[in-house]
Amino acid sequence: MNTRESDFWNERSGPRIAPEFFGDIVATAADMALVVAESGRIISVTTNPLNSGLGRIEHWEGRDVREFLAPDSVQKVENQLVAVLRNLANRPDAIEVNHQDGAYWDFPVRYTLHPTGRDGRVLMLGRDMRPLAELQQRLVKAQLALEKDYENQRQHETRYRVLMAQVADAVVMVDAGTGRITDINPPAARALNGTTQSLVGTAFTQCFEGRRRAEFIDALSAASSRGAAIPEKATLRDGGGAVSIRAHLFRNGGERTLLCRIEAPELAPSNGDETAEQAVAVLAATQDGLVCTSRTGAIEQVNDAFLAMVGAGTPSQVEDRDFADFLVRGTIDMKVLTDRDRPRIFATRLRAESGMDLPVEITVADLPDGGHGFLLRDAAGGSGLRANSNEALLPDSGSQTQATGLVGSVPLRDIVASMTDVIEKQCIEAAIDLTNNNRVAAAEMLGLSRQSLYVKLRKYDLLTRDDG
Q: Is 371 left (phi over 0), alpha (psi -120 to 50) or beta?
């Protein structure tokens, strides 16, 4: 059946549109339309009246389109103009460019270019890409927030695991609904004659004589409601003896959980004398120098490695002397090492009895009597004390520890300058990667203008990234 509509669309030369209506159709079909000559001069400009965010750009007419393109977009437009006019088959269907017009116009537009058949003129139909850029930015922010939540969760999980492994009390986590063990630490596993792997998931009542699951869990819950000072008595299987269980009931993600602490005379922690003796023996035999000082800084105890570092024959030659005498900067280094906010690893130089200097890395620990313990590592052949060069100042991760470790061996202005450049470059690279090389979104994420971002990209040689 032929109708007026079918005749309209089936005309061999295409639908006939009156000239007075063609402009309005183009204006509403795209956010903006430019008619550009082969030289790049803008002949006419049309904007979509429904998109008020574009503003007024009538002043573009008669000027070169390159004046309103970001530096990274000029070559894209030139190549596409040539490809359209020469009817090249391998040209891209669309290109995304970034416009700029002073301080009032700076955002991406996706263009499709079409030949008009008149005097080398090309019609550029553009779609405003700001909503997509904003959506990408929100997606990046959501991803960063999610990664932060994951990192916090991992930190809490690590702290929980370390606490369960290191606490001396026998602690068991029991699901109050099922009565099964959800977690157990090594002292509790030994008390129940098992291992942490074999006991997790088993019924807590099977570890005790003559106790039924429901009654036992109810008794522990009741004891928890009465207070932790009133323990529940139980007898271990296989002649393990009587124990006291102090329970605390709490909710974990909506599930009720019992924190049970098992107490028995034989479970009391040892005094640790044997462990302390082993630790002293290890520190005495280590290849790192060990120095223990009094509250005033006088040397009380050293190991053989420290004697070898300073060239002393016996401990009596260095004992009762001030440890600051063996540091090149003396009391200055000593004040840094004993300060509450001291660095974790401090790089300095040790002065031997012969007068020669030895680069060392020092770690400090506070002793119970108010003194300090110093562990010194020879950094002459390693990477601890770096040479005085800008390249040596560049850390792998820009960490504060690596920067503070260079204090004293490198001028402060060199440390600050190199660390600032490294951190700035890493932040720009991260923003470019997160936004998939969208320069507009990256500039907004970093709080920079487009011009400032391009200056920094050129400074760090980052403009060689693929624009696609």
A: beta
Look up the pTM and report it.
Answer: 0.38
CA 366 – CA 381 distance, rounded (Å) = 28
Is residue 301 within 8 A of residue 279, CB to CB? The reply is no
The two three-digit tokens of residue 395, written as one number: 């850390």
HSE-up of residue 379 (Cα within 13 Å, Cβ side) = 22
Record the tokens describing residue 177, joined without a space. Answer: 């609904």
Instruction: Report whether 165 contacts 157 (CB < 8 A).
Output: no
Which has more confidence, 229 or 138? 138
DSSP states along 303-366: -HHHHHHHT-SSGGGTTTSBGGGGBTTTHHHHHHHHSTT--SSEEEEEEPTTS-EEEEEEEEEE
> Would you say 299 and 321 are in contact if contact means Cβ atoms under 8 Å apart?
yes
Instruction: Tell me the angle at which helices 412-434 and 130-166 cross, rounded to the nearest 10 degrees.
Output: 120
Strand pairing partners for 279?
A: none
What are 185's two structure tokens? 């630490």
Q: Is residue 33 a contact partner of residue 124, using CB atoms and an 8 Å limit?
A: yes
Residues 380, 359: Cα–Cα separation, whole Å = 5
Which stretches of 342-438 are DSSP H helices?
A: 390-393, 400-404, 412-434
Q: What's the one-letter identity of residue 439?
A: R
pLDDT higher than 60, residue 468: no
Helix (H) or strand (E) holding 101: none
Contacts within 8 Å (CB) and 24+ apart, 208-213: 208/234, 208/235, 208/236, 208/237, 209/234, 209/235, 209/236, 209/237, 210/235, 213/179
List beta partners, residue 349: 359
What is the per-residue pLDDT across 432-463, written as a single tens digit (0 to 9) for each? 876 778 888 788 778 888 888 888 888 888 87
Chain segment 358-384, per-residue pLDDT in tens: 899 999 988 888 889 999 998 875 444
For residues 416-423, average pLDDT: 78
Instruction: Specify the DSSP element, H or E, that contains 446.
Output: helix 439-446
Torsion 16-17-19-23 (CA) sign = negative
Query: Is the Cβ–Cβ distance between 436 and 445 less than 8 Å?
Result: no
Q: Which residues contact 85 (CB under 8 A, 6 or more apart)?
A: 38, 115, 120, 122
